[in-house]
Amino acid sequence: MVPIIKRLINEGLKVWIYSGDFDSVCSITATRFSVNDLNLTVTTKWRPWYTPDSEVGGYVQQYKEGFTFASVRAAGHLVPTIQPKRSLVLLYAFLKNMLPPADISN
Known about the structure:
The protein is α+β, with helices and mostly antiparallel strands. It has one domain: Rossmann fold. The chain has 4 helices and 4 strands, in the order αβαβββαα. The protein has helices spanning 2-10, 28-36, 79-82, 84-95; strands spanning 15-20, 42-50, 56-63, 67-72. It has a 4-stranded mixed β-sheet with strand order 1-4-3-2, sandwiched between helices. The N and C termini lie far apart (34 Å). 21% of the residues are buried. The model has no long low-confidence stretch (mean pLDDT 95). This is Serine carboxypeptidase-like 34. One of its GO terms (molecular function) is serine-type carboxypeptidase activity.
């Protein structure tokens, strides 16, 4: 998938990949290694993001080329099924072209 993702990024598409941190099918560690293989420039370092009820929803890192990688806390392989509220925060951020909130006041 790395070459396909790289091609999409090179075409100027905004690409987000997210991973549940309890995913035993596609581990977050393996996904991070794949993201590193893209050789993209980090613009926002790995940091927590929050839900409207002040919980850490996961972590996120953004890259210069329009790529974003996010984790979803306490989610397995089917993130929207297991953590629907956290998934909605990510979807909203993606549609608004912004990162999910960096602190509980956002």
